[in-house]
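Hey, can you fold this?
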Amino acid sequence: MGRFHFLKEKKFYINLLLILLLCGVILWLTFRVLDRYTRHDKVFTMPDFVGQDFRQVKYDYSKEFNFILIDSVYPKGQEPGSIYQQDPLPGSKIKRGRNVYAIIVAMTPEKTVMPNLKGISLREAIGRLESSGLDVDYLDYVSYSYKNNIIDQYYQGQPIAAGTELVKGSKIMLRVGIGDDKTNIKVPNLIGKPANEIKRMLNLAGLNLGKEESEDRDSLQYMCVRRMSPGPSSNAVQLGTFIDVWYHSNRTMDFNKEMDELLHEDSITNRPQPFVLDTVIDTITETTDYEYEDEF
């Protein structure tokens, strides 16, 4: 009998067919189990959790996702405990049960230390406060020989010593010397300037930010000064004067045009009176006639 005599037997082909069928069934079952285990056929769109409370989101979506907190940050103006950043990003196509990594706004406010501002200039004091994460409340000018020199520092109406721990963003009132000359200063022109820069500009000029009002609704990043009182064309004011401002969105107003009109009005208001020759001649004539009559 030859080596390949089994190829002529019917039993061989039956067994081969059964083996192939069994392999096919095993492969089909394997893919079915993998598909079910990986949920390959179920894809979800990642929701946007930014700004929502982390604990509430974790409770509401605990069956869909596995939330992992990886860090906390201290951004200004954000609700403590809210989600600041997430991964995967909102709108991503993901499977149920996916890990979601979150960065939240810290529950406890960030702390800083009060610097020593006594005896330094106003400009340097503002810089040190900014470096420490603190803000100027307002400037209180009093009689003192050195102009724009810091006399004392206050927090919530009480003197505060250097090295005191404070929450970042706390407001510090500065008592500042007015100088011996007590000269007035000109109000800086704030028209068209961004709202988030106004307070610092006024403080550096020795002035305070007074009432703030918005003429329309828009995000702060688009708001600019449209009007101010006292205005830049008014007479010089005392140090520490409060300046009221009105904001308007730069997306609904052409501030370049507003500035041109303001400059035009200022040029008319401050234009020197023309030299009128006829008036001078009449004055000379009247004086001459008067002296001539006196001779008789």
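Oh, and this one too while you're at it.
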Amino acid sequence: MPDVILVYPRTLWDIQNVTTRLPLAALYIGSVLQEHGFSVQVIDQRVDARWQDTLREALRERPTWVGISSMTGRQIHWGLEASRIVRGADPTIPLVWGGVHPTILPEQTLAHPLVDVVVVGEGEMTALELTQVLQEGGPGAALEDIAGLVWQRGGEVIHNPPRAYTPMDEWPYLDYDLVDIENYVLAEVPGERSLQITTSRGCPMRCGYCYLTVVPDGRRYRAESPERTVQRIERMVRLFGINAVHIIDDEFFTQCRRASQVCERIIESGIQITLRTNCRIDYVDRMSLDDLRLFRRAGFKHLYLGAESGNDRVLAFIDKGIRREQVLRVNLKLKEAGIAPKFSFMGGFPTEIIGEVKDTIQLMAQLIEDNPEASTTPVQLYSPYPGTALYETCLRTGTDMPQTLEGWTESGWEHVDYSWLTPGEERFLQRAAYFTFFLDGKTVAESMRSPLIRLAARAYGWVVRQRVRLDFYGCMPEVALIKWALAHSR
């Protein structure tokens, strides 16, 4: 039976082999623990329909502790469901919460009766030391010397010193035997077998909506060596027969020279693989065409780019560090390099007016017109992340935010108090979040199996682009049809 159980909670959008990426947080922690002789069981609620029974079975012989990893939002709800099962089976088993949300709000998280300890920041070495201390001293062991913990003693909340990050080359290779890998192989395009990898952590930028600006070392970029990255990719290809890798770093291209070295080594290795990752628009703007062509030869057929807004005032307000003209220029540059860009967008920022949201929608349409290989996300409604600069702005507008861990379970744009918007503006944004799904004529169409539905989705994309060109957004009965279809597809 396991020394440690690591629970990865469900989210709102869990479709096996479509959205179920590897639970990398659990794999990193579990791999370190197993390297040091501790047994670990990972329970991923997203892929285990009987996860409650799996958890109860694992609890029969008392583990040293149970860990819950959670982002802000619905994962908290399912993490609490798992915690209730643990508490009911044995109230003496420590419940340890980590991840982005507990890191940002450790005291509020710790105040919940189903939380005994909070891990702040990177959890690998903290988890190892916690396991060693608890196995030696039992549930009442002193935790003072474990960096990165927030815990209680006699009702007093104790913040231990922060945990210094460990160089990534010092981590063991991930132990994929902790999970059934076939649950996480995705087909992002037909015929693909894609898995995910992290090769660096942190992003030095200051985007006002991003949680990395407030978590420990979130803005400190650190990466493993190019040699190790390529070795890990080769290992994944050999073990699992994949032909695509999605690099889900916070920002893979922070050091362009390192990214080039990774690509050079991939080409030298002879691996034939599709690569995709996210990249900042200003980074691409500074790259040469030779750089981009090198990335394309290595396998980067796609890049995800955060444009967020089509209005320069809004871009400056959210500290994005880019301008509209750069988005247009980068789109054409990637077209010349043979790399297909996918641009992401948001709307509903504090102080943003509808005219500025329309600037965003018009930019989306222009990107598709300028580059037929480009695609776009829908306009995603802004949701405040606790602790960020824009979150503080929302508080100043009088927006109500949750005051308990349980209160954050419904966090998301559907439940945000957009106090800075009029009812009409909020209705427009919510409609835009639906009809811009179809704007590029590709994103929805490529996910459909039926040729007829694919054709209809492409045709509706043309209709949306005409609406944008004419600035006509009234009389949109199709939005109700889209809402119905999405609700009945879950």
